[in-house]
């Protein structure tokens, strides 16, 4: 199945691990950071390299988390890292040194290319994205400008230049609803566990949680009911959901919690390792990492517990 992925085999797990990117050995991490530094230099920028970012002589900071995950996930191994790193750094440098799309594109074209993105709070500077809307604990909705070679997340300053924030968000949501569903899979097992996965190359696939009812209608033919759905957004290219209608929610909850955790690990564009209860556009977290045991656990509040009890009393498979 498409969502079951394994990272490439390189240095064994017994090799000393890098403190920042634990999927790299110390040797691999040194190779990765050294290649990043030399690639910036080849493109005319000297940078200071830190554990998870680099800084150039103009104090501009560039994170390495997504690029490291891209290299880690490529099954061809470290022999292709120079190519991957060069492609990424070249895009970064050209976007940084060239004129801003906000200055060169007509206003209506900018609005036509606006999309909302759900991102982890780890990936944004709170001071620059004061307008960001909280979607769930640690998750935020920001507006992004979709460009041919990159995605520009828009700061407060950029939005102020474009107009009214509420109107821009409405346009971005309309654009999101107009995107095609690139790929859809139904995951099920012999015991009746079942959930849906939307996959795609689009950077806004997971962000379609903001239009979950519309997505559910498109891929299942049915709207979400009064109880809502389970939902998971492990990284930007995946969205999983299970409409809540009966006791099939119980096996789906455990399976989706595992799916979210495995999909989140070591991936570029990681969003959340947890599963949520979607109800009327509101997300409530249902899984968390158990610090003492080192694994996942399901956590439910009174409202969700009451829903479970009602579904159990109702009986299975009444749709």
How are the strands of the biggest sheet laid out side by side? Answer: 8-9-11-10-12-13
Question: How many strand units?
Answer: 15
The stretches of 5 or more residues where confidence is low (pLDDT under 50) are 1-8
Radius of gyration: 21 Å
The helix fraction, in percent, is 25-40%
Kindly estimate the percentage of residues that lie in beta strands according to DSSP.
15-25%
Average of per-residue pLDDT values: 90
Describe this entry's structure for a reader.
This protein folds into three domains: 26-97, no CATH class; 101-178, no CATH class; 183-314, no CATH class. The longest helix is centred in the first third of the chain and has 17 residues, at 26-42. With 319 residues, it is an alpha+beta fold. It is globular. It contains ten helices and 15 strands. It has a six-stranded antiparallel beta sheet with strand order 8-9-11-10-12-13. Strands 4, 5, 6 and 7 form a four-stranded antiparallel beta sheet that branches. A hairpin with a 5-residue loop joins strand 8 (183-188) and strand 9 (194-199). 35% of the residues lie in helices and 22% in strands. Helix 1 packs across helix 3 (81-97).
């Amino acid at each position: 199945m498409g969502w079951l992925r394994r990272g490439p085999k390189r240095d064994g797990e017994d090799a000393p691990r890098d403190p920042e990117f634990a999927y790299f050995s110390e040797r691999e991490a040194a190779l990765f950071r050294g290649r990043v530094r030399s690639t910036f230099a080849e493109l005319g920028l000297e940078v200071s390299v830190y554990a998870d970012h680099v800084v150039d002589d103009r104090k501009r900071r560039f994170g390495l988390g997504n690029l490291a995950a891209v290299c880690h996930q490529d099954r061809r191994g470290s022999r292709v890292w120079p190519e991957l790193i060069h492609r990424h750094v070249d895009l970064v440098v050209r976007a940084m040194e060239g004129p801003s799309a906000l200055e060169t594109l007509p206003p209506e074209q900018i609005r036509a290319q606006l999309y909302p993105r759900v991102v982890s709070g780890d990936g944004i500077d709170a001071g620059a994205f004061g307008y960001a809307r909280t979607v769930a604990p640690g998750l935020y909705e920001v507006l992004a400008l979709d460009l041919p070679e990159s995605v520009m997340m828009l700061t407060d300053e950029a939005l102020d230049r474009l107009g009214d924030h509420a109107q821009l968000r409405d346009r971005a949501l309309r654009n999101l609803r107009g995107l095609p569903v690139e790929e859809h899979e139904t995951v099920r097992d012999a015991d009746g566990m079942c959930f849906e996965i939307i996959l795609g190359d689009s950077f806004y696939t997971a962000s379609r949680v903001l239009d979950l009812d519309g997505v559910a209608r498109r891929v299942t033919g049915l709207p979400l009911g009064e109880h809502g759905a389970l939902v998971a957004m492990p990284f930007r290219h995946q969205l999983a959901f299970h409409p809540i209608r009966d006791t099939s929610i119980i096996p789906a909850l455990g399976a989706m919690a595992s799916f979210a955790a495995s999909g989140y690990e070591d991936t570029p564009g990681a969003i959340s390792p947890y599963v949520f209860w979607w109800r009327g556009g509101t997300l409530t977290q249902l899984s968390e990492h158990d610090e003492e045991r080192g694994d996942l656990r399901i956590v439910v509040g009174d409202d969700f517990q009451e829903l479970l009890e009602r579904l159990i009393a109702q009986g299975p498979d009444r749709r």
